[in-house]
Write a structure and sequence with these properties.
This protein is mainly α. The protein contains seven helices and no strands.
């Protein structure tokens, strides 16, 4: 009887131990799921910064936008350098629009992706990072700033396209020159943002943040995640 009682006691102890092991396993599974969710946020950050499947050279959306915007700004400067030469201005504005959106103007010096499409990718994947289950407060905060800045770039890109069409339809250099001057200004703003509220700096906010501000807040996001 004593032997039986001891055996039963050991069995009960084993059951308790197994139950305890099962209880301890559940948080481990939760931690694994949380890590996977966090990694999805990091994956979308990578799409913004490092790699995407259909960009030139497979770059991230942000470096693609910056490279295309640099081409657009360069040719806007070329166009503005001869305000009395309609043909010259029209030629380089075509190049600007090509770098902004090659679906509008397929021929030119851009890489064939365009600022507008790349900026849309930045905004979309910043939002996807923030919306990933388990995304940190750091990701959510700075993703909103990146998304706003990239959204500004999309709006400004659309304005450049409208102005480009007006330059193409202009009948004189005098008519085209102020349009070209505005294109030059906007392409610079796309790159570095602007101080719309007069506080002495260009922030990430609506109508202020450009690609420079998007890059800055992606850096903040990376550093906050221990990835910088």
């Amino acid at each position: 009887m004593i032997i039986r009682a001891v055996t039963l006691g050991m069995g009960a102890a084993l059951l308790v131990a197994c139950a305890g092991d099962m209880d301890r396993a559940e948080p481990a599974a939760d931690m694994s799921e949380q890590a996977a969710d966090t990694n999805m946020a990091h994956a979308h950050m990578g799409h913004v910064l490092t790699a995407w499947e259909d960009t030139p050279g497979g770059q991230g959306f942000l470096p693609t936008a910056q490279a295309e915007a640099a081409v657009a700004a360069q040719h806007a400067g070329f166009a503005a350098s001869r305000p009395d030469d309609l043909e010259w201005m029209q030629m380089h504005v075509v190049h600007v629009v090509n770098a902004i959106d090659p679906s509008v103007e397929p021929e030119g010096p851009g890489a064939g992706y365009g600022v507008r499409q790349a900026a849309e990718g930045v905004a979309q994947h910043a939002r996807l990072a923030a919306d990933s289950a388990g995304a940190s407060d750091n990701v959510k905060l700075h993703a909103g700033h990146v998304e706003t800045s990239a959204g500004n770039v999309v709006v400004w890109s659309e304005r450049v396209i409208v102005l480009g069409r007006q330059v193409g339809a202009a009948g004189s250099a005098g008519e085209a020159a102020p349009l070209v001057a505005e294109i030059e200004e906007i392409t610079e703003v796309i790159l570095v943002g602007r101080d719309a509220d007069g506080d002495g700096q260009a922030s990430w906010q609506e109508n202020e943040g450009g690609l420079q501000q998007a890059a800055q807040h992606m850096q903040f996001m990376q550093e906050g995640e221990g990835l910088g």
